[in-house]
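Backbone-to-sequence.
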């Protein structure tokens, strides 16, 4: 189809054509960035942590009176929890994914304390059975041995703490020793004696999963068992058992397991519930951005429909003349669709420039990553399709006008 007549017609309606182009450009710029942010949030929410979340529950206690030696009570609590029906395994840890607390520390490769830390990493202090309970995958090396575990409370009172071993996640291992095996290497976190890497796990998530901070990706665990007062019980529920029932029974068991010591349950939840709460704001953001996209697309579609309907009324004589000269309904339909395609393309080109500018602004103001170029053609396809769908009904009405009725209407 010759587009020169279309361009000539648009030139006579500069204001209306310019407004629809600007509307499409604004929608394209905002929708491209909104889609990118939505997919970012969806990727964050659906990311795997490498932890058996569906089988895990967490429980923590506080005592109402000071306990000078919490270690015997802690061991009694662990033994009691293992007797609860439906409990597959149990361990203690200072922190866990989606939890409220986060412990991080610098990692040195030299005994010289004046040397700067090589990286910052999440610091898990754990009791026996931590890897099995959380379902972590050991890539190389081994788990902690029984004689390597030390008591957290006793370590806190030691001016020269000795922790013999450490297990790191793959991200930290590659960060410290790229291209090398980490097993047998030494780091310095506790005291002046090195902690030897005895194992590398595939994934050990940060307590704040989904963070874009590089330091949050580095994690390590030490065989330092917290007490019930400073740690959290992680309970893995056996397959087929009711997690809620097991969790309640575990809480009741612990409260009844300390005669003469009044304790209260501080936190008690499944890891899946904690994950849902953790990503609540992300889900709200996705809903908000999706609503903005839908709203803009609907407004743009109505704008295209309104403009096309107005032009059909204004061009009744032209349509009748073309029909009288032998133009088919299909040619009239394609005329309006081509006209809309030209307007949409002009708006999309301006919108792509605007989308890139908004992306740069978000990068500077909110430290967001640059908008990937793949979202520009994605936004273009959406708006091209929207324009063709929106203009179809007015164009079809124009094509259905009989030549005589059209000429009379002029």
């Amino acid at each position: 189809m010759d587009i020169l007549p279309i361009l000539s017609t648009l030139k006579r309606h500069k204001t209306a054509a310019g407004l629809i182009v600007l509307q499409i450009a604004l929608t394209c710029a905002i929708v491209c960035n909104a889609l990118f942010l939505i997919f970012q949030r969806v990727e964050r929410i659906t990311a795997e942590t490498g932890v058996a979340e569906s089988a895990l529950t967490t429980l923590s206690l506080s005592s109402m009176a000071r306990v000078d030696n919490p270690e015997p009570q802690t061991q009694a609590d662990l033994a009691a929890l293992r007797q609860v029906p439906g409990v597959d395994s149990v361990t203690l840890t200072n922190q866990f994914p989606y939890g409220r607390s986060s412990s991080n520390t610098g990692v040195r490769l030299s005994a010289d304390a004046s040397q700067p830390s090589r990286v910052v990493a999440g610091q898990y202090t754990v009791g026996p059975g931590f890897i099995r309970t959380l379902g972590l995958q050991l890539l190389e090396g081994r788990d902690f041995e029984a004689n390597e575990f030390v008591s957290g409370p006793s370590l806190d009172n030691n001016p020269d703490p000795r922790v013999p071993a450490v297990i790191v996640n793959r991200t930290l291992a590659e960060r410290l020793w790229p291209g090398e095996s980490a097993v047998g290497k030494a780091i310095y976190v506790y005291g002046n004696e090195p902690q030897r890497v005895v194992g590398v796990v595939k994934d050990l998530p940060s307590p704040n999963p989904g963070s874009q901070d590089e330091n949050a990706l580095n994690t390590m665990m030490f065989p330092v068992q917290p007490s019930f007062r400073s740690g959290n019980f992680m309970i893995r529920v056996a397959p087929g058992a009711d997690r809620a029932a097991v969790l309640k029974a575990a809480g009741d068991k612990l409260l009844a397991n300390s005669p003469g010591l009044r304790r209260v349950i501080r936190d008690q939840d499944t890891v899946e519930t904690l994950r849902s709460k953790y990503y609540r704001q992300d889900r709200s953001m996705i809903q908000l951005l999706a609503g903005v996209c839908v709203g803009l697309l609907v407004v743009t579609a109505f704008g295209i429909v309104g403009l096309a309907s107005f032009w059909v009324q204004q061009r009744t004589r032209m349509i009748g003349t073309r029909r009288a000269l032998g133009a088919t309904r299909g040619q009239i339909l394609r005329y309006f669709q081509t006209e809309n395609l030209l307007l949409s393309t002009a708006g999309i080109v301006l919108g792509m420039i605007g989308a890139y500018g908004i992306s740069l602004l978000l990068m500077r103001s909110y430290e967001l990553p640059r908008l990937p170029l793949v979202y520009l053609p994605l936004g273009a396809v959406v708006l091209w399709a929207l324009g063709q769908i929106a203009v179809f009904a007015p164009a079809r009405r124009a094509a259905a006008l009989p030549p005589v009725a059209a000429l009379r209407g002029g």
